[in-house]
Design goal:
This protein is α/β, with parallel strands linked by helices and 377 residues long. The chain is built from eleven helices and 18 strands. It has two domains: 12-283, Aldolase class I (TIM Barrel), CATH 3.20.20.70; 292-373, Golgi alpha-mannosidase II (Immunoglobulin-like). 29% of the residues lie in helices and 21% in strands. The radius of gyration is 21 Å and the shape is globular.
Length: 377
């Protein structure tokens, strides 16, 4: 497998779908690029401005896909985003239609990839959707193994088409974790792959997806990442603790950090979460090691992430539904393979703390304690 040239750390940016969905326009993307710069998100590492579904128009008699009236000039838009020191992403799928019913790339993979490169696109989210009924079910009814082979071939075809352009384009597979893509996507040129179904801005959705990442850590590394879906930080009715926990755990997972919030109306406390540089540094650590869930004790999960230089991060998460933890949790350094007492830094408060074996810790419901230790041996 050739050495990757993109996504050497998990991609960071913003995607249009969670906030704009099918209403996104050229102006929205330009404004979002401006806001990413003005808010400090660019300085914190958010680089990709990704257009999701509904930019597509119709194909002409030569098969060339044109944009619709919402996006009058995609090359000019890409140039604008690039002028801000950012990169731009786009969306398609291997079926005849996208998830929203717009033109897909089936039968036009090389043509579309070449067009993306000519526009200056830096990232492609490739979403399965209509490929399921159009190809998988039609060509291989009731044969799941054959259906999976068709899916692999579809992603491989676009992976080769992107590579043939000579432009470094992040290839993000969106097929909901079917057939364990972590085992085969890197060989097809995939830089990230969805591991589960779609996330919602709800605690149960976020925590269920988080739990499903346990055991996948060996498949993540520079150039190829498990993707538990976009960030819902700042969306829905997530509490401040839930937003903080969501962001913490995606960083611990070395997941792509793709925000999807309302940028012009971002609350200061949400901005503080999304731009916490020490938490982001865990996600962007050059070692590229995804955290492992080492153990759970009742409703408390303990995750450990190895960092470059021998450092480590410990995330202790209270998944319990009681509004306040009524009894202390006792941290076992021994079960983490560590020996106390150890000096650590709380990455959300900035406080220096000493941790020791069997120390009692109080964590409120749906909140997290995130500690960085100098040497996790």
């Amino acid at each position: 497998m050739p050495a990757p040239t993109v996504a050497l750390t998990p991609p960071m940016g913003w995607n249009s779908w969670n906030y704009f969905a099918g209403k996104v326009t050229d102006k929205d993307i330009r404004d979002s690029a401006d806001q990413i710069v003005a808010s400090g998100m660019k300085d914190a590492g958010y680089i990709y401005v990704n257009i999701d579904d509904t930019w597509e128009g119709k194909r002409d008699e030569n098969g060339v896909l044109h944009t619709n009236e919402k996006f009058p000039d995609m090359k000019a838009l890409a140039d604008y985003v690039h002028s801000k020191g950012l990169k731009i992403g786009i969306y398609s799928g291997p079926g005849t239609k996208t998830c929203a019913g717009y033109e897909g790339s089936l039968g036009h993979e090389e043509q579309d990839a070449k067009m993306y490169a000519e526009w200056g696109i830096d990232y492609l989210k490739y979403d399965l959707c209509s490929f399921i009924p159009d190809v998988m079910h039609k060509q291989a009814p009731n044969d799941e193994a054959a259906q999976m082979r068709l899916m692999h071939a579809a992603y491989e075809k676009m992976g080769k088409a992107l590579k043939a352009t000579g432009r470094p384009i992040v290839f993000s597979l969106c097929q909901y974790g079917w057939d364990s893509p972590w085992e085969w996507a890197p060989a097809l040129g995939g830089n990230s792959w969805r591991t589960t179904g779609d996330i919602e801005a709800k605690w149960d959705s976020m925590y269920t997806i988080l739990s499903q990442q346990a055991g996948l850590e060996k498949y993540a590394g520079p150039g190829h990442w498990n993707d538990p879906d976009m960030l819902e930080v700042g969306n829905g009715k997530l509490s401040l603790a839930e937003n903080r926990t969501h962001f913490t755990m995606w960083a611990m997972l070395s997941a792509p950090l793709l925000a999807g919030n309302d940028l012009p109306h971002m609350k200061p406390e949400i901005k503080d979460i999304l731009t916490n540089k020490e938490v982001i540094a865990l996600d962007q650590d050059k070692l590229g090691r995804q955290a492992s869930r080492v153990y759970s004790d009742g409703e408390v999960d303990v995750w450990l992430k190895h960092l470059s230089g021998g450092a480590g991060a410990i995330a202790i998460l209270n998944a319990g539904s009681d509004r306040v933890s009524t009894h202390p949790f006792h941290l076992s350094l021994t079960r983490l393979g560590l020996h106390g007492p150890m000096h650590a830094k709380n990455l959300w408060t900035g406080e220096d703390v000493e941790i020791r074996d069997d120390m009692p810790i109080e964590i409120k419901s749906h909140d997290v304690l995130l500690l960085k230790v100098a040497a996790a041996k």
